[in-house]
Amino acid sequence: MAKDKETNKQTQSSVLPEHGPIDPETGKEILVSIKNIDITFGKGDNAVKAVKNASFNIYKGETFSLVGESGSGKTTIGRAIIRVNPLAAGEIDYKGVKISGKISKALDREVIRNIQMIFQDPASSLNERATVDYIISEGLYNFHLFKDEADRVNKVETIINEVGLLPEHLTRYPHEFSGELRQRIGLARAMVMEPEFVVADEPISALDVSIRAQVLNLLKKFQRERGTTYLFIAHDLSIVRFISDRIAVIYKGNIVEIAEAEELFNFPLHPYTKSLISAIPIPDPKLEKNKVLFTYDPSVHDYSVEQPEMVDIGHNHFIYGSKSEIENYRKQRESGVSVKSVTIVTPEEKAELDKKNVNVVKSHEEILNRPLHDTGNKWFGVLGFIIPIIALIISHIYRKKNYIRNFKAWRKGSIVGFIVRGVVIVLFLLALLVSVL
Question: Phi and psi for 147 in degrees, rounded to 5?
């Protein structure tokens, strides 16, 4: 009981402790803890659950990568950590202190000081009316992180030199730079604060291939010298493999697999993880041409009877699945045989497979080919209310042409129109009956 009170007191603290709690399983310090979080956008029928019951720990000094396709919820989680996206459920702890939801101003300042983010879009994240000097110095000003003006100038010039910018860039504005240089400005703005934890959202996506290694080496340099911890958000697994200590794979808001980098690449157990790894390009063009992609089909999972959960199957390898799936994953891992995600076939076999895939692609195109003007305009509903019988005919035509939103708008308006007219007729008949009696 006393221990629970002490834990509760720590999570409600207004200041951050020097160290976070220790994970009893690994003996490592937990810097960030994501606990069963849900993140929802919109309300009512328009609500979209972007992240579902996500949980993981990030240890101090490591690079924890979050990978998945666009729209899977990677950036949403990153923005939740820096308190931009509110949680619908669950909590986020930093050094054992709850930082999600309503917190004190003192704690909020400490969170901002210790957690920085490198945004995916450098163009929209930079103040177009401020010079580069002010953009990089803004955090220093807000938290008084310099002794005097000479110290501030020295810190700014040091950081821009480290990210590959020149002193003359300081007097310019963001619109004068390319996307690559803007990304460097964003990196300098975050790192000049000397944060303990950095959310790096696609930090090299806007950079030339020749520059990416330089920036990644710079991030590693900060990690070695300052002990910086990273949440590295990306979709390029070929890069993630070589910079990450651990990797989490996310699919449509669900964390489906978490493991150390080499463990994940040698033993990718979840079908979605296999599909991501199979999509990594092979440098040899001949092999790449004859590579067979592993395609993930969500219908292979049957969760109607057994509910899925995240389970540690050993080797610090967590995977999401039903009880029967977990048993199969555990058997695969314990066999010790590396899982093959990439298959190379002969040109003849590849041509045969491509022919078989044509019909599948065509069937999917019919479903995905939604017309451009299928907006479901509210005026369709109004017209449907006014002319319900004609609206039903129009909605049927829209349905056949795959204008689903327009079909629903017309049909909804016509149904409401019929109901209102029915009520009016019933009330009129009742009034007529009363007057006769």
Answer: -75, -45
